[in-house]
Batch of 3 targets.
Target 1
Amino acid sequence: MTSQDLQIEQRGAIAVLRLNRAGKRNALSDGLVLAIRDAFQNLPEGTRAAVIHGDGEHFCAGLDLSELQERDAGAGLLHSRMWHAALEQVQFGPVPVVAALHGAVVGGGLELAAACHVRVADETAFYALPEGSRGIFVGGGGSVRIPRLIGVARMTDMMLTGRVYDAQEGERAGFAQYRVPQGQALDKALELAGRIAQNAPLTNYALMHALPRIAEQPADQGYLTEALMAAIAQSAPEAKERVRAFLEGRAGKVGKG
């Protein structure tokens, strides 16, 4: 599916996806959600990382309420599951995803950001879940992903009271791992994606697909899954060459920056 609402640019090994509905604060229509799904299902060969950002003054102000329809329970269930399947392609797709956040990161926009692996926010970013005041409930995976970032109590407070977190509060709460000056989120996201793209693909895959599942497993099962994943990752030819380069002094040491 192609969509004018999602612009995709390939910058070497990095796919850059731009939400392109600035006139609607990049609100998520069903068409845009499906376009995001299709984009991650069809990334060009050689893509090693992706960046998502929003055109205009906001990352994403949430669900496009002009599309909100009266649905019976069955139709509502299927609609929510469509969002789940789409954002699953972001979280558990082929490459790590960095979100560049600015302005509104609200409702469905926060659900999209939570599906990404690294989040960079500039000083204009703010976070909210207005569904509670609108008589609805999150339906794009937010009740699973957002508490894993900030905890159940904080999410409950946001939905009960309409609390809004600014960029500084949001970084402290766990919405974003990085906070940068206004206008610099995309540049920082691209810098991080460039670093990520240089990692061994199997290591990136393990961090995306195995680590979150290990974190949910009982300890004894997690240890076994970790051992299996470690054995698979270190057996890859690229991993062996990287270790050899380090032992022979051909690789850089860990440092700040």
Target 2
Amino acid sequence: MELDMHNGYKGVIPLNHHPDFSELGYQVITELGRNREGGRITYLANVLNSNQQVVIKEFCFARASADLSGVKAYEREIKILQQLNHSRIPHYVDCFEIPGIFYMVQEYKNAPSLGLKRSFHPEEIKQIALSILEILVYLQKQVPSIIHRDIKPENILVDEQLNAYLVDFGLARIPGAKIALSSFVAGTPGFMPPEEQFGHSLTEASDLYSLGATLICLLTNTRSAEIGKLIDDNYRFNFQKLVPYINPRFRSWLMRMVERNRKRRYANAAVALKALQPIQVVGTATAIDTLVSTIKPRKRATVLGLATVVTLAAVGGTLMSCQPGDAVRQLLEARECQGFNLSSICQEQTGH
């Protein structure tokens, strides 16, 4: 790929000081972040003779034990960013290099990362989810569609109006691409969908798993590095007791986002977005909501079908001795309830 970069830039990086990019038209203001293991440093800079601010990402291959594959990753990120035009994906601006160090310049968004310790009300977390899903819908409408592959709190910026921005497209792929087992370290443990961990083909549902894991971290005030505390011995998320005030419908939506089997997740971002929009995050649930949210997805259809039959029968007056609310009671007293190991819920809802 041909890159429009300032090859052979001879700028000097003084020891213990910010690099001097004045010859290229940038003045570094401050350091925004540092990843020593990855050999990456991020700077905030002014564009000289303008009011524009940019982010300059430094990739030091000499310090990061990186090889040609690392260089290709940043070339791929630039190629993807050049074809995107979304207000909540920072635009690519420029790139340049010096021996052993590569720099990429992007639009600056005045919004902190979710990787910082921040607390949000559950309804605010829903707004963040909707905002990210809108970006994913845009990415999945591209031809070919784009899978981000590294959605996590550190790669999501959120401003004061709860607008979310998605950054770091260095691992992005197209659907159907298989991931080599040797690239495990490329993703982030706990946020990678199972299909990626085992080198299977990615789908438009792959990013949904990572987003679901991110939202669960926000709801439970869990740092990314501690996400393992939310995953049980069966490698499934187990966080329900930490957020008892969450509406079961929202909890059910989240659990479908992080289904280990990608075929049981929402098919794509558009479907997940539509499903989330009408859900109230905090609030009481009906008996049906409570029942359905505790059942594994494969068995929900059976219970919902049973609920429909009971409800229709109640409306038609064919249920004997039914008083208002008895339709739900008869549903919960049915054999299926016991068959799903929900005796505690049956007792709670029916009093039997």
Target 3
Amino acid sequence: MKRGTRKIETQLAVIGTGIAGFAASIFARQRGLDVAQFGHSGAMAYTTGYLDLLGVHDRRVRQDPWAALDELRQDEPQHPMSGLSNASIRAAFDGFTDALGDMGIGYTKAGDRNLSGLLPNGLAKPTFSVPDTMLPGITALERGAKTLVVDFEGLQGFSAKAFEVNFRDRWPELSSARLTFPGMENRQVFPEVLARSLETRATQEALAELIRPLLKGVEYVGLPAILGMHMPDEIRARMEEAIGARLFEIPTIPPAVPGIRLRETFERSFPEMGVQLEPQLKVAEVDFRPSGATLHLHGPMEDLEVEASAVLLATGRFLSGGLKSDQDSLSETLLDLPISQPQDRDAWFRQEYLDPRGHPINRLGVEVDGRFQPVAADGAPIHERLFAAGAILAHQDWVRQRCGAGLAIATAHAATESAAAALG
């Protein structure tokens, strides 16, 4: 059977389906651009749902991310966020979280302080914006409120007892319980399965009946993140009314519902927004011309050829496939963009695995100019219609700096702005 080739045209082609790629598509549509986005499953399922801005700088946890950003600009002028103003970063977060709210997932607005996001192991981390389903847990911790955390027989990736034990000193009024999830008796269960089951009213009512007898004096109830895969805020509201207490989600270990929820929300909502989304197709080749580029994609049933006036690369690092390495060097996988790196592989790492400074390899990536255009060794743009955003960028260590979402959202906003300017 002869393979067909489908052809489409767009103003901006976004390559990558992580936070940076999805944010870029959102910002492009907010600017009125035609957008097509391509990628594969990416690393979205490995996110907690929290949106960090800058939680750690100079090896210290920071409560004020804006003051930390001011210091970052002084200490690390090459960091991708150092060239962006606080006002532009705040606007990026507001634009992104507003869009999420329109899609059905409420998020807290950009504030002046970091929040203490709860983690499944009974610790807290600095983060900037959280799903509305998780905010009551942060409030309960701050108040030291009487709280019950629940897990389920056979559940993988979350232990209410471990959560209670690790928080005991900070949260004396915290207790835990284990239940059998309705309809899941005598079996191993996973958060995604529970979340999809909890989208039915019958399961919501059955679970509420199990929780209610445990709530003597309890103000808050924490569950692993299972409040549905779609419209979690509505499910939380119904469950709160049924049990008579505030309810909140706690992220589980990945792959986790909050990340899968985000991805499915984008895939469902983007076509309605006018984004031509192909989330299961990887770009195999890009041919640049003065006025844009032609992207070639190969699917199981047909090929796709895309004529784009500009390209935004947001393919991430190693986990997402944006970067790769061999025995001698790092390379960018799709366009073979230059990576500024030491000649000796030994310089990628420090002697101690847990060196508090981190490893140099974590800061290697694609070099860009002030317009977020990838550049050659002489500083000249590789192409006037090529832009990049997110974790693929050099001079940042997003894991250690707790700035993954901030990096993705802020640089996607800036790169999209530059792309829009280039398109006139």
